Amino acid sequence: MKELRNQATDRLFETVLKLKTVEECYDFFEDLCTIKELQDLSQRMEVATLLHEGQSFLQISAKTGASTATIGRVNKCLNYGSGGYRRALQNENE
């Protein structure tokens, strides 16, 4: 995603990396995102977690309410993306 790599995006990511607690994250993301945007991001991470655990699209849809299109998109990123989900899931388990 070359079009994302710029000084403003670097600043955003550097800011996120400086947050130290879940409460700080809540405060920051509440200011940064709409409720819907944050719900969508959270849902995608939950979908990635469940896919990584080997659950089926049907099970994931029932648990999260995510559409099969969303699950498919996350699955595609897990299997063919830049590795971001996999790294995050690996870090979560450490």
Describe the model.
With 94 residues, the protein is an all-alpha fold. It has two domains: 1-32, no CATH class; 36-94, Trp Operon Repressor, Chain A, CATH 1.10.1270.10. Helices cover 76% and strands 0% of the residues. The chain has six helices and no strands. The protein has helices at 7-18, 22-32, 35-52, 57-64, 68-80, 84-92. The mean pLDDT is 95.
Could you give me the name of the CATH homologous superfamily of the largest domain?
A: TrpR-like
Low-confidence stretches: none
| CATH A-level architecture of the largest domain | Orthogonal Bundle
Percent in strands: under 5%
Quickly name the level 1 CATH class of the largest domain: Mainly Alpha
Number of domains: 2
What structural category arises from helix and sheet content? mainly alpha
Mean pLDDT: 95
- Note the total helix count: 6
- Termini Cα gap: 28 Å
Please give the largest β-sheet: none
Report the order of strands and helices: HHHHHH
The rough form would be described as: globular
